[in-house]
Specification:
It is built from 22 helices and nine strands. It is an alpha+beta fold. Helix 13 crosses helix 21 and helix 20 packs antiparallel against helix 21.
Length: 659
Amino acid sequence: MTLFNIAFTNVRKNFNQFSMYLGSLILSVLIYFTFVSLAYNESIGIIFDKWGIGGQGVFLAAAIVLILFVAFFVFYSSNYFTRSRKRELGLYSLLGLRKGQIGRIIFYENLMMHLMAVVGGILIGVFFSKFFSMLLFRIMDLSIPSGFTFSFSAVLSTVFVFGIILIVTTANGYWIVYRHSMVELFKADTREKNPAKGSLTLSIVGIFLIGFGYFLATRSVESSIFWSNNFFLAATLFVLFGVVLGTWLVLRFLFPYVVYKLFLNKSFFYKGTNILTVTWLRYRMKKTAGTLTMIAVLSATTLTIIGALGSIYMNIISFAESSNPNSYQTLWSTQTEREKIYEAIRESDSHTLIYHETVDLYEADVLEKVDENVPFEEQRMTYFEVMSLSDYNRLAMKLDNNSKKVKELAAGEAIYLSPNGRFDNKKRMHLYMEKPYTLQFRNNPNKYKLAIVDVYNHVVLNSDMASSVLVINDALYKEISQKSMPRHIDIFQVSNSDKAEVLDHKIQKIIGGDSYMWNRSMSSFYSNYHLISTLIGVMLYIGMFMGVVFFAATGSIIYFKQITEAVDERSRFAVLQKMGMSHKEIRTVIAKQVLPVFLIPLILGVCHSIVAMISLSVNLRYSIGAPVLISTTIYTIFFIIYYFVCVSTYTNMVSNGDD
């Protein structure tokens, strides 16, 4: 029998043992192939070219990062899988096979696994390409037909990447074989001779590091002394490394300390099967601390990536909608251009003209000098445009965006319409209103003092054409208009403006300027909204893929670690079964043993991610509730599924199934 036949027979007869490793490989291929296929997708390429955002370059750059995590995921899975078969490799040596021949068997097995994974992952990726492209278009809020796609470049890239991973994993298998003697291969991993007792002092240090890291992370970067220029780098490093070190200290010393106290509590220790669970935990904690820390960090990273990008997506999309309340705004349109716009709207089957309004704005410079040494967030405004109170009320009542009607304003009073109002902190708001502004309008020699008495978090004009608007009373507005040159704006509000691509293109041609791109003569809700939704949607989509890889890596670490331990624990559970322990009792013991490995990192990971999201909310003033709740719930559900799968596999490996 040739070495290849031995490898083939081993895979065929022990397919259940290989299935989890094969599953992790197929998942890795599916993720990478699908992601790279989207980078080469022609429809997506056209979208990126249309909006001029270089999205395919973003995809390919993210693919490089994805390769690193996929390689880590596969290597870790392969390493644990190979180590779990040390006795099998020792048996080959006992039968007279040289180490080089054993290494070739490992290579043939890896080759078969990778071939099946690449073929299976690519086929699944092709059939699911429509779903993934539809998901991307849905995130970008674009209605584009998407069909099955097959990219030969993506296939070549996938084969090349996983060919390199095959070489690395095979080399690791050779290293395990050559590093250990036959006796060492047969011998199970030794337990710790001295069970860990933990340390209350080091546990307190770990809790302090985590707690202080949480404290720093949730402080405002703008106002906290800890985040000043002198301490910014130190604070960042402490939050990153201090929390990780604190997590390791808690897992390495606090958890063993708790287990040791349970061991000393005889009423608990001798109750039911607790003696088995506590004893097992005592002799495994030192080796487990590093792994649990990695799982907690990966869990926190996964949840933070998905939650943060989800929060940013929801808030930015909301901002894109609120900062562009009008379908179209044109600057100094001629009567001929207006008639052509009317005609284009009438010819459209999907859109109707809701109303057409006009408004005149007057531009003014702030005469007070700005101290350039002061940080930007502490500087006052340097430029405004003013509109009349009656114009504001007229437009506000036509918009369905919760715009407030203003009853009256005194001569020197103004209301600032801030497109960024809900993201500005209280300090910024105070700067707007702490003292009056001295304004001078274009082509107007007079100077005017205006005090901002309120800041509204909504606008009545698209922000790209009118970004800093003050509302003033009609009398003062009339006085300014007599000596200043206005900016005349036409507003065209149409139905279904979020799906007005064809109409948008026609109006762009009428006004002039590049289609789909910002120009000074026109502001379009469709262009502004979809430019932002496309860019942010791509970021969210990439983040979702990264989150899946991180989650798969987390599950892989836990699963293969437990399966490796199951191989070493077979003899112990065999003795327990001979003593009369049932299959159900063995499952209960295993469930208790495995539970801390899942539960503790999950709790720490969720806590770390929630603090990271609170930091995001505090500093960017984003709403984080819904994305955090959704991502944490989904992650926890899949973690629970992983737990039950692991318990079942562990139980089947150590139990003969007899009741």
